[in-house]
Amino acid sequence: MKLKFSKMHGLGNDFVVLDGIRQAVALTPEQLRYLADRHFGVGCDQILLVEKASQAGVDFRYRIFNADGSEVEQCGNGARCFVRFVHEQGLTDKREIRVETLKGIIAPRLEGDGKVTVDMGIPRFLPNQIPFLHDEDVVIYNLDVADESLEISVVSMGNPHAVQVVASVDTAPVGEHGPLIENHERFPQRVNAGFMQVVDRHAIKLRVYERGSGETLACGTGACAAVVAGIRRGLLDSPVRVTTRGGDLNIAWGGVDRPVLMTGPAMTVFSGEIEL
Ligand SMILES: N[C@@H](CCC[C@H](N)C(=O)O)C(=O)O
């Protein structure tokens, strides 16, 4: 089977994007891992699959797969690339799009300057909404990792995040603690691990060890989760500039029961065809 794809990225968080409307796409986890493989395949952090909407009032459905082949609920940088993709491929000329994901509907908008703003939905904090094994709902939890007790906040942006504040993102033990947090027994569906350095009340630096993909150059939902956690901890005020290793995102949040808005770039690198 030959598959057409586009290689895209949002701040270096890179994607293989597939049009599942004009070509039939049904991939096994092995085929997904092959596409994501940086040595034997195309190489990416996530694979995005654009499909027809399954309900009225929605323009498209898009599905997200991590490099390890697991299907996940949400992807912020992917949502921005999805919008560029459907425009570049001539699948729509609407600038405001409603798109179904595994965890609800999100609403991206293509701005005049080429950036994309995405209404990422309302963040959730209850342990069973993450899911995170704990009886109470508090802003900071202790998590035992490698003989240390880390202070984490948990946030669901549709997908699960554990965010901690670190003195410096440059020296934070992302490679060592990241996989231990990702696979911690108190996160039954695993978790994305965020390491946030507060610069001032409107600026943070962030690194994220992503569930199913390892550390990426940027994580959109991770940026939303970090800003929300920072505001809940009383450290930040909206809007917040989030500096990742791949560049900057702007995140705004109006508080409890309000959606998070994320603005940033989306780039197409090349298009190709691969035999599976
Ligand atoms: N890179 C993404 C998040 C992709 C999914 C994540 N790894 C998960 O398993 O939840 C983003 O930009 O949000």
Automatic annotation (TrEMBL):
Residues annotated as the enzyme's active site: C75 (proton donor), C75, C219 (proton acceptor)
Recorded hits in Pfam families, A to Z, give: DAP_epimerase
UniProt-listed Gene3D superfamilies: Diaminopimelate Epimerase, Chain A, domain 1
Q: What are the site positions for Could be important to modulate the pK values of the two catalytic cysteine residues? A: H161, E210
Enzyme class name = isomerase
The chemistry this enzyme catalyses reads: (2S,6S)-2,6-diaminopimelate = meso-2,6-diaminopimelate
Give an example GO cellular component term for this record.
Answer: cytosol
**Molecular function terms from GO:** diaminopimelate epimerase activity
List where in the cell it is found.
Cytoplasm
In which domain of life is the source organism classified?
Bacteria
> NCBIfam families recorded for this chain?
DapF
Q: How is the subunit organization of this protein annotated in UniProt?
A: Homodimer.
Q: What does this protein do?
A: Catalyzes the stereoinversion of LL-2,6-diaminopimelate (L,L-DAP) to meso-diaminopimelate (meso-DAP), a precursor of L-lysine and an essential component of the bacterial peptidoglycan.
Family recorded in the similarity comment = Belongs to the diaminopimelate epimerase family.
Q: What is the protein's name according to its record? A: Diaminopimelate epimerase
Instruction: List the source organism.
Output: Dechloromonas denitrificans
